[in-house]
Design brief:
Strand content: 35-45%
Number of domains: 3
Number of helices: 2
Number of strands: 39
Largest sheet: 11 strands, antiparallel
Length: about 525
Amino acid sequence: MMRSLYSGVAGLKTHQTKMDVIGNNIANTNTVGFKSSSVNFSDTYYQTVSSATGPNTEMATAGTNAKQIGLGSMVAAIQTNITEQGGPSTTNRALDIAINGEAFMVVRSGTDTCFTKAGALNIDPAGNLYCTTNGATVQGWLADDDGNIIKDTVKDLKVMSTDNMYYPPEATKCATISGNLDLNDPKVDFATGNGVPITFSFFDNIGEAYTVKLSIKQVSDGKTPPSAVPGQYTVSVTDVMNSAGESVFVKKVTDDKGVTTYQATKTEFTFGDKEIKEANIKVTPSTGDLTIEGASLTLNFNATDGTFVSVGPDRTNALYKDNETNKPTAVNFCITKLNDQTATTFPQYDKTTDDGGVNVFFNSLTQYSQGGISKLSSVKGREVENGYVDQGHTAGKMKGVSVDEDGLVWGSYDNGAKKCLAQIAFATFANPSGLESLGNSLFGATQNSGEFDGIGEEIGISGSLTAGALEMSNVDLANEFTQMITTQRGFQANSRIITTSDSMLEELVNLKR
């Protein structure tokens, strides 16, 4: 009789444990990265009244089974449903990441290396990337000065260090002129027009901005009477302006009597194969009017269909040639001397590599008839499949940090530049369910989960990231409430075992009255 009482007590304890787990699951329904748990029971402690016997052929008797009475149940395991993915919740926050798959983000809490699925990140006052859910510092690999990730033992991701707060300036390597040059535009007429004006801008090595003025005009055939050569134009440099809007070729001089005159600044430059020296630059002393001689190159179009053919002299670098026609698509502009000093702030053109200076692309131009009005524009950089590159920029100050879907941490700067600062490290385990829950959405490695190697891996090896989102709890409320009902009924049934056994004992005691 006493055995049934203890079986009932064991049943009450196991069902209470299960109810505790269910309560914890439901309490964490909205906990970011939470992994629900489930309870498994097993029977226990059997008392053998008689052992099993085999058949006896001599006595012609059959075998008998063992007679055993169980003594209740016990909690066999509390299993964490760690591999079940929680649904993503979009936040559109630059430092939020939802971790998909079996990977865990590596973090440091105090002196311990831990692992988490909570991807709500931020920057602490020391510049470290940390997890806002538990305050643990995110671990990974830092980038070098060129933005290359150096994969070594994981360390704290100090992404807002002194070196990263500012972005150095970078010289513009290329510029692109595009649009349509209308052959009927009066401005391009070789006899009466002044040329169609167009400008392009660039930065030098220290981030100073300059603007180059160009003029495009038809070429005369030199006959009598003269006429335009079909599809052929000259493109000429007419001036270069600094960031203050002043010509780099002209300086204003005021004498003791207050009389102002204008002089040439001795600035020199190259345009394609044209070397423009001091003698080629004329300035009218009284008005400051500027004339640049010899700074013209040839721009060619197909006279039949109006498409671009070539510009300027031939090039050796294939980057500046058309892939199909092998014709030059860009000319080089380079300031070789500013005022009376060698222009060390400008990237100089190297004839051996056919690079340096600013390479100006003209292959986006067309020569179509569009009402006699030319429409031209320019941008810094050269066009590639996903936009423009080699644009250059001024010095910049960091204005924000973001994490992309590869776990790369990027710094964005107020000059429009982006720089790779670090990469978050992740870890996977042979038995992720063997990880130990440490609270605060943290897990620790155990002997049964497998050890962390101290280096980690990229997210793409064993999972993926969703930027601007968080992984929510994987608690299934429908299942939890169903489990709650069955657990309650099990608890009630076990309590009835105790009360019923007590009633039977009472009847036994009442045999003697």
